[in-house]
Design a protein that fits this description.
There is one protein chain. The chain is an alpha+beta fold. The strands form 2 sheets. The chain has a 6-stranded mixed sheet with strand order 1-10-9-8-6-7. It has a 4-stranded antiparallel sheet with strand order 3-4-2-5, covered by helices on one side. β6 and β7 form a beta hairpin. The chain starts with 6 loop residues before the first strand and ends with a helix.
Length: about 425
Amino acid sequence: MDSDTWEIIHIPDKPAFSPEHQPTLKVYASVIKPKFANTIVRQLGKVAPLEDLRHVKRVRKKILPDHAFSLTGEPQLTVILCQASDHNDMPPDVQKLVDPYELSPFITQVCKYAALSKEEWEEQCKLWPTSFHPPTYNIVGIGGFSEEDTQSICKFMRVAIDLAVSGHKPLVNAAVIVDPSLRRIIASETDQVYPSSAPHDMTSAETISNHCQSIDRMSNVSSEIWLNGILEKLNGSLSTVACLNPWQWSLQPHDIESQWHPLRHASMVAIESSSARDRNLFPNSTDSYIPDHSQLSDANCPAKKQKTNSHSPEVQNENKEEALRDPSIEKPYLCTGYDIFLVCEPCTMCAMALVHQRIKRIFYAFPNPTAGGLGSVHRLQGEKSLNHHYAVFRVLLPGVLPIMHFNKVLQQSHDTITSF
């Protein structure tokens, strides 16, 4: 496979903005007397904490021009009182501080997001001082992938796309969970939201072996032939891709005897299959890994797991899969350290489920402008309140034709749904 025609791009935690055009928020500020600074800041910390603006410094210090060359001149201190509401109303608790400390509130702008580069930080400080903490980590892939890694990523994405278009009319979403240390498929599933989506066993050793063989055979298939096959499938409607149209199931006839559910999106079914695989490999396991939250807070952290049994032997990567059937080896904690490949960007429900599963990296081929949870509508990977964060990448297929065609059909499907 010619991976040079594929492109893998990182989807950052926040939207990309040029340093000169960063989004801002309105805040109330006031010049204060230096002797009141500590008291005012303490009280504001209680009545109006800047929870969403931790990167913004509460007090701005400025030497007035008249005192620029004076060693004894007083600096001018300006403090942020609170964030301004849509109606520019000041909270009563903040209003109570105006008269006692002779404040003169005014509205100014501060940058909404923390700076990711020195250039962004320098532009932010022109509005109001902010803190800048250069990243001290290196998420695998953000700085680029090796040729070997790129080949592997492209092959697994092709598995996901083939799974989505094979035997499904119209197109559905597909999810492939992979252990990157072994480059082996853990589970692969498609949407099972409609009665026509018959469940199938994707966790057996025979199925996984067939997948691995199909990956190797793909190297001999030209991208042009493969892409033509995808375009044929894309000629149909995308209305039944669960993450793209979460409510489309309600318009379909329901068969109570069929095994389906409106929440059985591809990611959810793949997670279920991964769990079934663990139960199959560890039928007598009573011990399991528990998460080390100190190591799981960022996607860049290696897949570290705390063991409930300290007597487990060390297992080398090349023998890991065989060792999984050894009863002395504990089963993994959920999907810690795994990658998942999706044809379409997951919705927020699926994206949150992947947080709970401790997925390390997510790769998807097509955006989800209607309900996307990882870049198109929301960015769950940038939600600081979560105790786990994964890295997100989009895999661009060779050429622009598949993307343009996908977007066109997606818009047609969306217009059809909204017309009901």
